[in-house]
Amino acid sequence: MAKLFPALFLVISSGLGPGPLAAQARDEVKVAFEKSDRPAHSAHIMSPRSTVLNGAAATFRQARVNISDLIADMRTVDLNKDGITDIVILDKQNKRILVYLGDRALAFKKKYSYGFGKAGGRFVAVADYDKSGKPDLAVENVTTTKPVSIFFGKGNGQLVPSPLNLTSSASVFGGLKFGSAADLDGNGLPDILAQDFTNQLYAFLNQGKKKFSAKNFKPGVGLGFAAGDFNGDKKDDCFIYDMRDHKVYFFKGLGNGTFLKMNGYKVEDSFTSCDIYAADFNKDRKLDLLGQGKGFGATGNNWVYMGRGNGTLGSKKFLPGTGSLANGVAVADLDGDKLLDLAAAETGGIWLYSGKGTGRFGTASVLGEGLSFAARDDGVQGVGWGDFNKDGKPDIVGSNPQGLFYNLIFFLGGQAPASLQISNLSVTQLEHTSNQILFAGSFGYTGTNCVFKYLAGESNPRKSAYLVFEIKIDLPVNDVYVTYFVTGSFLNGINPDSGTIAFNFALPSPVTVISGTLPSVYLLEFYLRDFNLIKSNELQ
Prior knowledge:
This protein is mostly beta strands. The protein contains no helices and 38 strands.
């Protein structure tokens, strides 16, 4: 409860929100802060952990790459066939597609940018649409009668700048929600199946020589589908979610872009949409179905239905835990045991589920704990996988939003994880002046495989290694809680293994005192992130 002071306080909002601020600093620092009337969360201890899968150590080391683009959607693919996975980013806000060519060092020195004025918010599918042996990209187009555009790959990492715009058989309303490549007519060429926000599905049949024919149909009320050959007739089918009775229905592909609705299977109440994925989880050469559990902000009850290979589904199993599959899932053998695993983008990290080869999965381990990989919309991909350093081991990448900029967070398979611990926090000064908070002290740290780097040319402190701490400003009526993000030369090039870090800050305050007694201030939490965003434990 706030203390009551007889003195007068005038609280003035900085008006700058969470953005970077110029601080009158004793140390040379860059500062950003976020303020609220309540604490962001209660302080707690977070211990670093390595990932252990199937009883054998499958370790991943976290590495961060700053990028200058805003990520609406992301795909991983080897566009130049050099054995190193590349990353393709859709920047909807700036209407462009970015190709980041991979290299062993994760430097991404080569980048290609393609303006796309009609860019929507998602990639539809990656496939070799012209059978040239070069991967191509199908992208959402906001034109209502041309909802999909294909950028053809040149095979050297570059794309043909002028896309092929596919004309639909009906107008698209509200944009596309989900999309997939599939062979709907059994001619061996990848077709495209996409769904808009009115539940309409659009089929684009690949006739060869960059010619497509179009059909559309409305299967029901609800969003979400998975395409594949579920009955073994060499013509892809799909399972489609219907929100009216919370079932996924089998739609048998008739080989001409049309479907016959058949049996339905009960799933969880995921509200209006349900992210669905098709894969063979038990190695019986029959497609199974993975789907999102609870929706509308709830989590848990993610499910797996085992496919029987004839268009019907067998037993239903549940993933352990309370995760959500709504922000993208990478399905691959990520631990080298030849069984499919899952890497799901979540608000608190990448959740890694180890497959048991039966349709069941182990309890998720968390990579990048405390970082968000949640996409801003359903149907986009906040996580991908590949071999980004060409060591023959699968890696994982997630797109991590940090306010007005994004990071790519890599988890490199087979490398020892990093850890960071802080201790012995000594505060020698913590006080409020008329418009600043003076904060000085020191703390000890020990690290394993950590990197401490300060980027002097970057205005946002979260692009470097940085400190995070929350301060309570005690006011007569409503206390103010301020979370600071601070970096500077005091974190640059320090011993990565252990040492003591001294700090001496003069920080901007969102509170200006016109007259009267200065408010008391209290430290609520304090932690450190290295350059790769490895988070230490929290101190109070």
